[in-house]
Amino acid sequence: MMLTLDTVSKSFGALTVTDGVSLSVPKGEALGIIGPNGAGKSTLFNLITGNLMVSAGRIELMGRDVTRMPAMKRVRMGVGRSFQIPQPFEGLTVFENLLTAARFGGAASHDRAVHDCAEILRRTGMLARANQLAGDLSLLDRKRLELARALATGPELLLLDEIAGGLTEGECRTLVDTIREIHAAGTTIIWIEHVLHALTSVVERLAVLDFGRLIGVGAPDEIMASREVREIYLGIEV
Amino acid sequence: MIWLDTIVQGILLGGLYALFATGLSLVFGIMRLVNLAHGDMIVLAAYLILVLVMTLGLSPWIAVLIAAPVMFALGWLLQRVVLNRVLGPDILPPLLVTFGLSIAIQNALLEGFSADSRRIPNPELEGASMALGPINVGVMPMLTFASAIVVIVILNRVIYATPLGRSFRATSDDPVTAGLMGVEPMKVFAVATGLAMVVVTIAALYLGTRANFDPAIGPARLIYAFQAVIIGGLGSLWGTLAGGIIIGVAQTLGAAVNPEWQILSGHIAFLVVLLIRPRGLFPRAYD
Predict the structure, then answer these.
(1) What pLDDT, on the 0 to 100 scale, is given for residue A47?
(2) CB of B184 within 8 Å of any CB in chain A?
(3) B4, B47, B148, B243: least buried by Cβ within 10 Å?
(4) Based on the structure, what is the number of domains in chain A?
(5) Residue A151: Cβ within 10 Å count
């Protein structure tokens, strides 16, 4: 199993944002996470990456208990993530952003990191921007950089947080193709997304969060046909 | 010719101020930490070199090679054990801690070495001078200025062309995201403070061989360092050199008019630059 969440909860004072979530993700799977704004999707990612520590519950990564492990060690175990709001190192060039992730997160040698980062830039369509300062990039390029930088850490588990949001249809298609390629190469993917057609064209299972609770997991068709999901997530009275 | 000589002396003095300031600038640039004990760390390093010279009979140039790694270790430990615990969104705790550290260092030095002023003996080069066109300049001021340039070139090389430097810049940009890319900000901060202490040791060598020092002079060195950093633009190392030169030239010009105006002239130059360019001459983006 790549990832196991066992009744994971997170509270900020009296506010519980993740409420007893249990979920297993086998190696090589692509899992989509949907839910309304404020459902606790990004918080769940923060708990998986170690950016936030759980209030209760247990997290296992590749069979190892990582519940109290700091974020930088989880990266080195193979957890890569992109952010909903792109957070590039603005004072570094695009290539330097990737090199930093590859050297420190992926623990690659210099030559290996340079080679791998160049390849990732090519795959993500960012090669022409390699020497541009990340702070000068457009939104689309920042999103691409988010994906590229997460890949540079050499992830076995890739967490994508609303990476398709704000993209045009054509840009979204290109992105989906790239994510499919990454998945086909064996990387386990957990993808939070509101652009459902993009998400369902890649993932094998969908999980639905609402008020921090996991209310359903299953095949995308099943989940999208579920009355509860349609009411809660899509706001459709059925 | 007197004015030319005065200006050249001021520029060379600026090299010393730049050395005072570079460590401060490095630490601020990476972790937004204002180390109020920076001047006292320079004085501490000067005493360390003095002890090595007096007890082991070493040349100060050899002593600095021993003192530098010791100061690196001290800076690393200081950051790991003390300063990392107080870094955060509130800037007050690190200010208070480094202020306390400043007082502790001054008192420890006072206890260990008394209030007598001391000087690191450097008989070979103490009075040496060389002709530079129509004027004569001291060898030590020239070496100080050259050292400042070498230090800045090396630090810029480290910051912009090595994985360590990329981790510095990534952490400076966003320590949380850097952590999620495998960088350990607390370790990065410790290495940065260690490096700053190496620069402090070089500054201490020139401070201690060119002038007398005692346990209480740290805060005044801190002020010159602050002024050089702020004039140059926070975080910009070449800007720090420019800031040091501006203060140095202002001080020597002021002293040429009236010896009592030396320090005041430096402060006035600082205020004038602040009025014209509040963000400094070379804000970080241009470095």
Answers:
(1) 97
(2) yes
(3) B4
(4) 1
(5) 26
